[in-house]
Amino acid sequence: MANSWNPAGSNSTNHLVTWLDPTNTGATIVDGFNPAGPTHALDAAMSNPQGVSGTICSGTVTPKVTIVNSGTSVLTSATINFGYDGSTAQVYNWTGSLNQYQSSVVTLPSATLSSGSHSFKAIVSNPNASADENDLNDTITASFTTITNGNAITLNLSMDCYGDEITWVLKDNAGVTTLYSGGPYTQTTGGSTVTSQFCLDNACYKFTIMDDFGDGMTSSGCPNGSYTIEDQNNNVLAELTAANANFGTTNTKSFCVNGTNSLNEYASSWKLYPNPTSEHLTIEVTSGGLKTIDVLNATGQIIQTIQSDEDAITIPASTLAKGMYFIRLSSNEGTSQKSFIVK
């Protein structure tokens, strides 16, 4: 079951998760049914922890658990002890009315955690203010990672007709640790489009897309594929255009996330070109008035500041080392940030 649930490198129609959990509830177990009837009158059980798995793009966690009545008596109350990283000191007193085999989803109080890896544990006890007659189904656990003030990043991937040839990986800047991956997809006439969400810290990353046939995202009689990677303010951090879709077997793009959550975006009011560049960068702005332009390196440090009321500002790039940089533009309309590459 574990090997076939959501295996990498196969069509999604061959995954058990597609058929057994099509709405992505996150359930990992199904309580069994004893045809001879349960042997306990009071048997409260726990299952299906939600909101405490994968990567959570926030320091705030709101867990949900499912309480199940596995006993013959109507379940009207129970105690849920829960907590994080080895503690179950928090208490939630549940009340309701569940007949045999009925269940109820319980939303537990939110908690604020530091960035990093965490564990969750919940234990149900005290059914109907009495002793639970079966403690083998009382406990659930889960593991997850939080990124405080994480950046919500979106991959918009448009493929040619042969999505079954396409896979991709997102790795750290060293190219060692795989953070997210996807594909292969389905073979579809006219191509298909998928959207994937990442939660990333302020850092630089490498995105690699692969085609096992060797013609990139191109095919006869089908539009070329393309992709963009955008931050929460719709700034394009990396992209592959349809004109460059024939990348062969692999194509890698580097990009950096610089945490622009609080910026007032008006990205459509200005553009920068050429990008990538080796000699100079032109910033063209449609709005008038005084503008402040900050040039930032990949770690977010300001290395140059320019003020101008011109509609087109040229910045020398020949003195910059090769790599990823950011332009932060501020005016009376707000602040916006875009990336550029020095090649």
The name of the CATH architecture of the largest domain is Sandwich
Q: Hey, roughly how much beta strand do the residues contain?
A: over 45%
Order of helices and strands: HHEEEEEEEEEEEEEEEEEEEEEEEEE
Instruction: Round the mean pLDDT to the nearest integer and report it.
Output: 87
**For the record, what is the CATH homologous superfamily label of the largest domain?**
Immunoglobulins
- What's the end-to-end separation, in Å? 48 Å
Spans where pLDDT lies below 50 across 5 or more residues: 260-265
Number of strands: 25
Spatial order of the strands in the main sheet?
Answer: 2-10-9-5-6
- By DSSP (H or I, 4+ residues per run), the number of helices equals 2
Count of structural domains: 3
Look at the structure and give the CATH class of the largest domain. Mainly Beta
CATH topology label of the largest domain:
Immunoglobulin-like
Structural class of the helix and strand makeup?
mainly beta
Radius of gyration (CA) equals 26 Å
Q: What does the overall shape look like?
A: elongated
Describe this structure in words.
The protein is mainly beta and 343 residues long. 3% of the residues lie in helices and 47% in strands. It has 3 domains: 116 residues, Immunoglobulins (Immunoglobulin-like, Sandwich); 106 residues, Immunoglobulin-like (Sandwich); 76 residues, Immunoglobulin-like (Sandwich), CATH 2.60.40. The protein is built from 2 helices and 25 strands. The strands form 7 sheets. The chain has a 5-stranded mixed sheet with strand order 2-10-9-5-6, with no helix packed on it. A 4-stranded antiparallel sheet has the order 14-11-16-17, with no helix packed on it. The protein has a 4-stranded antiparallel sheet with strand order 13-12-15-18, with no helix packed on it. A hairpin with a 5-residue loop joins strand 21 and strand 22. The two termini are 48 Å apart.
